[in-house]
């Protein structure tokens, strides 16, 4: 089942606050990465910043910069654990343990703030950085720029399997929202050792695109259900690209239009505080159909009448906030009164 909702934080926004604890900035996405001779060394400034994260929750602790390395034997060396408090002493302990293996020129620490805490990366030098993202099997259907946006490219800093896994999950969610419920995304990494870049391929098999199944209106009264069911299948809905007809090709845009159309239909019946939300698309692989569920909150009847002057309906809806999905209270009514006074 595909559920629709909104997250409280956007990881893209969180990345704006990423603190990269390296003395030298490395150009990772468009050119060669640092050679061993260019390996950055921890600066005094870095040592001053690290203690500020003391006690914060660790969302993840990862080894980064080595896509071809089997890290199974190295993971036990990481003293910091997810859902524990960040400790500079444990971070330094991890760096020392990794250096003692003799496999790396240096080990750097990067901290990335996230909604769940801080993400700690131990960058194994000489590090490999992200190169190009490619989407074989999906680029013929979706714009390459759109796929890059969904995958949150370019990722910041050195290669990590977590960034790749997050991009894969984001692509899978996107494809399902677009109606490709049977799609599969597999990743493979090709390392350009000359330039120190990891090019990532998201091999995609879209499968069949789903068709619309039934429409359920959770929370609606029998009267409103009859009204909205007739609306969502009507010819007028088809003109607005908002008709959900059984057997027709699934479209996220159609669902978005239908949500607005159903809500406006209730508002036209004096349910001015009505709310209609798309809840889920429950896919049936046997029929290749997605059954759609909306949550409907009709709200009370609210009738608006302007006396003493003629006001066109479209003008009234523009001037009175009660028509703008902001609810009804004395302040909203007073604001509408002021707008009418200013209009005349």
Descriptive keywords:
single chain, 344 residues, alpha/beta, Ubiquitin-like (UB roll), 3 domains, four-stranded mixed β-sheet, three-stranded mixed β-sheet, 10 helices, 29% helix
Describe what you observe in this structure.
It is a single chain. The chain contains 10 helices and 10 strands. It has 344 residues and is an alpha/beta fold. The protein has 3 domains: 204 residues, membrane protein fhac (Ubiquitin-like (UB roll), Roll); 87 residues, membrane protein fhac (Ubiquitin-like (UB roll)); 31 residues, no CATH class. α6 packs across α8. 28% of the residues are buried.
Task: Average the pLDDT over all residues and give the rounded result.
Answer: 84
Task: Output the helix-strand order.
Answer: EHHEHEEEHHEEEHHHEEHH
Number of helices: 10
Shape: elongated
Q: How large, in whole angstroms, is the Cα Rg?
A: 27 Å
What is the terminal-to-terminal distance?
Answer: 52 Å
Strand count, sense and barrel status of the largest sheet are: 4 strands, mixed
Query: Strand share of the residues?
Result: 15-25%
| Low-pLDDT residue spans | 6-43
Per CATH, the superfamily of the largest domain is: membrane protein fhac
Helix content: 25-40%
User: Structural class, from helix and strand content?
Assistant: alpha/beta
Instruction: Just give the CATH class of the largest domain.
Output: Alpha Beta
Major β-sheet strand ordering = 1-9-10-8
